[in-house]
Write a structure and sequence with these properties.
alpha/beta, five-stranded parallel sheet, 15 helices, four-stranded mixed sheet, 16% strand, 43% helix
Length: 325
């Protein structure tokens, strides 16, 4: 096949599948709202089931539901008939996927689920199918044609099922008033989770790792402290432990340009007075904003308490390692 033919095939497939998804909009009606309310009223878990390609789509729908505020998991219908049915209770709701509505492994679950009292929401392409007739709610995901020219491989139909699943998940998300922070809590390992959950307290260096010198310390002592703690800076405190200033690698370069006697210099004469600070309870992402806004690159930030006493320190490298940047 030449390049033009291959490109035409790709565009045809996308067009067919896009049309299948678009056709679902007219089926978002009272039945869809009823399915959403059934899921909202679920006091247990949402169980998604399906065979073959429908099973793969079901796994994704369950994952989307779980990550957007609706506890859900996938159960393979074949495994359900051999013991996994014990995972399902009357408090749950089952979303059953079968384009034909006649998948044997799924139909086998109808009688046991009826005995348990678990409601079924069916997504099929045949409203008169066995599965559709036995479900409490049926959502029509039929398509006019598959993208597969042989009409064998599920293509447009699986896309339509997936889109209907996404529609349910997002309707539930909005009904639950699910927030960005809620999403982050279920994605603690992702970049969003790190930005929205990690606080300065989670990353800052404390105790013996916190670089500090008294205001009357010599410049040489401050350099030794900076070297020992490896943060490219040191805080400077008064006799009560309150922060007076900070001395960074940048301050050192500027000090050396003045050709001073390092052995005689006192840190208080060369520190940056009233430096930018943060508190331990703010998000690490807010600390990034402070660093970027004030162009604090080589050094870092001293973390202070309500009495303006240093309790920690962090720099850009700490934020990079944590994946906040």
């Amino acid at each position: 096949m030449d390049t033009a033919t291959l490109m035409a095939t790709g565009r045809r497939v996308i067009g067919i599948e896009a049309a299948a998804a678009a056709a679902l909009a007219d089926r978002i009606d009272e039945t869809f709202a009823g399915a959403t309310r059934t899921l909202l009223g679920c006091t247990g878990r949402v169980i998604v089931t399906g065979m073959g390609k429908s099973g793969h789509v079901g796994n994704k729908i369950a994952a989307t539901l779980a990550s957007t505020g609706t506890p859900a998991f996938f159960v393979h219908p074949g495994e359900a008939s051999h013991g996994d049915l014990g995972m399902i209770t009357a408090a749950d709701v089952v979303i059953a996927l079968s384009y034909s509505g006649e998948t044997a492994e799924v139909l086998t679950l109808l009688a046991p689920l009826a005995r348990i009292g678990t409601p079924i929401i069916a997504l099929t392409g045949r409203p008169t199918s066995t599965l559709a007739r036995h479900a409490e709610v049926h959502l029509d995901v039929s398509v006019s044609q598959e993208a597969c020219p042989l009409e064998l491989a599920p293509t447009a139909s699986t896309t339509a099922t997936l889109v209907m699943g996404d529609a349910l998940a997002i309707a539930l998300l909005e009904a639950r008033e699910f927030t960005v922070e809620d999403f982050a809590r279920s994605h603690p390992g992702g970049s969003l989770g790190r930005r929205l959950l990690l606080t300065v307290a989670d990353l800052m260096h404390t105790g013996d790792a916190l670089p500090l010198v008294p205001h009357d310390a010599g410049l040489r002592a401050a350099l030794l402290e900076m070297t020992a703690k490896g943060l490219g800076m040191t805080g400077v405190v008064d006799g009560d432990g309150a922060l007076l200033g900070v001395f960074t690698d940048g301050d050192l370069r500027r000090t050396l340009d003045r050709d001073i006697d390092i052995k005689q210099a006192v840190i208080a004469d060369h520190m940056t007075v009233s430096p930018k600070t943060v508190t331990a309870d703010i998000l690490a992402a807010e600390a990034v904003h402070v660093l970027e806004t004030h162009r604090i690159g080589g050094g870092g930030l001293i973390v202070v308490d309500d009495a303006h006493r240093p309790v920690g320190a962090l720099n850009m490298q700490d934020l990079l390692r944590a994946g906040v940047l």
